[in-house]
Design a protein that fits this description.
With 730 residues, the chain is an alpha+beta fold. It contains 19 helices and 28 strands. A nine-stranded antiparallel sheet has the order 1-8-9-10-11-18-15-14-13. Strand 14 and strand 15 form a beta hairpin. Helix 6 packs antiparallel against helix 9. Bound molecules: beta-D-glucopyranose (BGC).
Length: 730
């Protein structure tokens, strides 16, 4: 039986950080780490805001954490009972990821008896600005209780502090904090309201980082004392009258009551699951891990916006600068295309709306067209620094070239837009900037082409492919293939112009010399060098790759002098070897399996897999997908599970030296989904029809899922003997 609950019994202080990710709740507008009510910045508590960034001095620009309006401390008979300071006699936390509600229950022994706190909270899926919490206290004696609850503005930041000043407010039933951000002087406003179902003495106190109310009362044995709390979070970017809106929201929900607000939230989640739940009969572990991954993707989907994307670590904090990578288009997009195309559109709209940023980046390097940010923040600003790694031996910043040389990023945008157009049949994204985006990406690659005097083909030199351990290589197969794809799609857009609105066609015709570009792109697509298999059937990842030292991953590991050292860069342990960080050639073959016969796909899978460290959570799913494609479902399975369990299992990298780099792994979640649906499920689209060529692992008795395709919702049921695909009534 599928269990929709992830639980941890017992209290383990060391797990506060990883649990923050595992038990995260969110609604696309904000993410709240799965920390306890009494936790502070010490335990990396965060209310992480989507798409709002700040920079202090020379630090990395990163997304904002809002003041924590859920902050609550318990005093019993005059003494604070907090974790981790006072050990509990019993403690558990759990996340019901069907309903997106996080709960905790903790019992402490006091000198006079036992006191229990049971709390739950959710980030409303119905109202993006709202968090709600229920906090219940009970004791087996007449305990003198003080609940101290309010807003903690002593915020955890990696490169902060991001607020220059806070102002506090107390109006009617509400307490509030308004912070002024450092860089752009935006306001972040958190207002909380509180309701109790019992009589208590109230007092409000504040200091320079907190505004708190204390509620004092005496418990009676066997009676539960329930407090409900509402927290509204707004920024001045959301509305000019953000404070009024926040207060209105609190008052509105206080009138409705906690249970009703929760019921609406759960009903909204049920609607999401009605389309997106994947049923796997015969393998509960896989079904649970996969749907848990989908929970994370739902929790970070920007439904409140029409032009916003998802950061590489979702809404779990500030790591990776809250920036958007190729992860979104290449790993997460399919989930949204299949289950909620409107979100897919929002993600891509963010890219078409940041085209100017990409054009400026290209110009800065002396190229044409659009070179998208490797780590994109608002406006397409590239947050990737020239020195993205600190050398553990010298403590010095290390020059890395991710931002300058990972040219494949632009093709990911083209891939995403075209996949959206193909699967939805909706051309509006092309009308609203998508057409220009594709053409500009093609212009970018065109301006990078090199031709040696005695050769008749083009090359792409000095790049970094998906495998970041080998920098500044020539003719990375993946990058070349994706550039060719981009040229082809730009030509397709030219052909499509007659189907687009007269306005769009005219705009594009006025902007570009279409015939000239068409000829250039056709020539580039035809003559761009794409490496082929050698005598062993292996495609060289880049020029000279096979001449590098051929050693095992374990051998490379054994050469490490410091467990935190970086494997790539100028003198990393992997740099001069064939050991790669993540799927590279295999990513190409997964995307374009028809480029070569099956035996070549297989040869490359078998060649590269033992040479892959899987040092990125993006790697496993590509191996899983290609394994499915080549009839190796059983080999695919452990890679699938690794992706699906990326946020359940501990062991992922959490710290690099003193820098926290952990967080959730939405690309792995999306990759697990692609493996289940496109890989094992074998879903594809041909002649405007939904088709499957299934490859179920032997333990899977049945796979069932729904997908949107061209405006219709289909349900696909597969067993080892039977496949049915039917349209659903919407
Ligand atoms: C990977 C990139 C990825 C980024 C964000 C890096 O470690 O190498 O491919 O885009 O993480 O997830």
């Amino acid at each position: 039986m599928m269990n929709w609950i992830i639980e941890e019994k017992g209290f383990y202080p060391d797990k506060a950080v990883s649990n923050g990710n595992k038990f995260l709740i969110g609604n696309g507008y904000m993410g709240v780490r799965g920390t306890l009510e009494e936790f502070t910045k010490k335990e990396l508590t965060a209310v992480n805001l989507a798409g709002v960034y700040d920079r202090v001095g020379n630090g990395w620009r990163e997304p904002l954490n809002a003041p924590n309006g859920l902050y609550t401390v318990l005093k019993v008979d005059g003494k604070v009972y907090n974790l981790p300071d006072v050990s509990p006699v019993e403690h558990s936390i759990w996340l019901d990821y069907r309903k997106a509600v996080f709960s905790r229950e903790t019992t402490w022994q006091t000198p006079k008896g036992k006191v229990t706190v049971k709390a739950e909270r959710f980030a409303s899926l119905d109202e993006p600005h709202l968090l709600a919490m229920k906090y219940c206290v009970s004791a087996d004696y007449n305990a003198n209780i003080e609940i101290i609850t309010g807003i903690d503005a002593d915020i955890w930041d990696i490169n902060g502090p991001h607020y220059d000043a806070f102002s506090f407010l107390q109006e009617e039933v509400c307490l509030g904090v308004i912070g002024t951000t450092h860089e752009s002087k935006d306001k972040v406003c958190v207002i909380e309201g509180c309701q109790t179902h019992f009589h208590s003495e109230q007092q409000v106190k504040s200091d320079d980082k907190h505004i708190m109310r204390s509620l004092s009362f005496i418990t009676e044995p066997l009676k539960t004392f329930e407090m409900n709390k509402w927290v509204a979070v707004y920024t001045s970017k959301d509305a000019n009258d953000f404070k009024q809106q926040a207060k209105l929201l609190i008052n509105h929900h206080m009138e409705k009551g906690y249970q009703e607000t929760k019921d609406v939230h759960i009903r909204k989640w049920e609607k999401k699951w009605a389309v997106s739940e994947v049923v796997i009969e015969g393998d509960d572990e896989a079904m649970e891990a996969l749907n848990y991954s989908l929970y994370h993707l739902h929790s970070i989907a920007p439904r409140h916006a029409d032009s916003l994307s998802i950061a590489a670590r979702g809404l779990s904090g500030q790591t990776y600068k809250g920036a958007v990578f190729w992860d979104t288009e290449m790993f997460m997009l399919d989930f949204f295309l299949y289950t909620e195309p409107a979100v897919a559109r929002t993600l891509l709209k963010y890219r078409t709306d940041t085209l100017e940023g990409a054009k400026n980046k290209a110009k800065g390097y002396g190229y044409d067209g659009a070179f998208y940010a490797w780590e994109s923040q608002e406006g397409g600003y590239d947050a990737c620094s020239d020195y993205n790694v600190t050398d553990v031996f010298t403590g010095r910043p290390m020059r890395t070239y991710f931002k300058d040389k990972q040219i494949h990023i632009s093709s990911a945008i083209v891939y995403g837009i075209m996949r959206y157009v193909d699967l939805t049949g909706d051309h509006s994204i092309l009308e609203e900037g998508g057409a220009e985006t594709i053409i500009e990406c093609a212009k970018f690659y065109y301006s990078l082409l090199l031709k040696k005097v005695n050769k008749d083909y083009y090359e792409l030199h000095d790049v970094i492919g998906p495998d970041e351990y080998h920098e500044r290589v020539n003719n990375n197969g993946y990058s070349n293939r994706m550039a060719k794809f981009t040229f082809e799609k730009a030509m397709y857009v030219f052909d499509l112009l007659k189907l687009l609105s007269a306005n769009t066609a005219e705009r594009i015709e006025n902007m570009y010399h279409i015939e000239e570009l068409r000829q250039k792109f056709a020539d580039a697509a035809k003559c761009l060098y794409i490496p082929g298999p050698d005598e062993d059937g292996v495609i060289e990842q880049f020029d000279g790759y096979k001449e590098l030292e051929d050693v095992s991953v374990d051998e490379v590991k054994s050469r490490i002098l410091n467990e935190k050292e970086y494997w790539g860069g100028a003198y990393g342990v992997a740099t001069h070897t064939q050991i790669i960080k993540q799927a590279d050639v295999v990513t190409w073959l997964t995307l374009f399996p028809n480029d070569f016969p099956k035996e070549i796909l297989l040869k490359n899978w078998h060649y590269y897999e033992p040479r892959t460290e899987h040092g990125s959570s993006l790697s496993a799913c590509m191996y899983a997908l290609l394994a499915c494609r080549t009839g190796m479902a059983e080999k695919a399975y452990p890679f699938f599970l690794k992706s699906a369990r990326a946020d359940i299992d501990e062991g992922g990298k959490q710290w690099a030296g003193l820098i926290y780099i952990g967080g959730t792994h939405p690309a792995a979640a999306g990759g697990a989904y692609m493996t289940a649906i496109n890989g094992f499920g074998g879903l594809y689209f041909e002649d405007e029809k939904v088709k499957v060529k299934s490859q179920l692992p032997s333990t899977w008795k049945k796979l069932q899922f729904k997908v949107w395709y061209r405006g219709e919702l289909y349900q696909v049921n597969q067993t080892h003997d039977e496949i049915t695909i039917k349209k659903c009534d919407i």
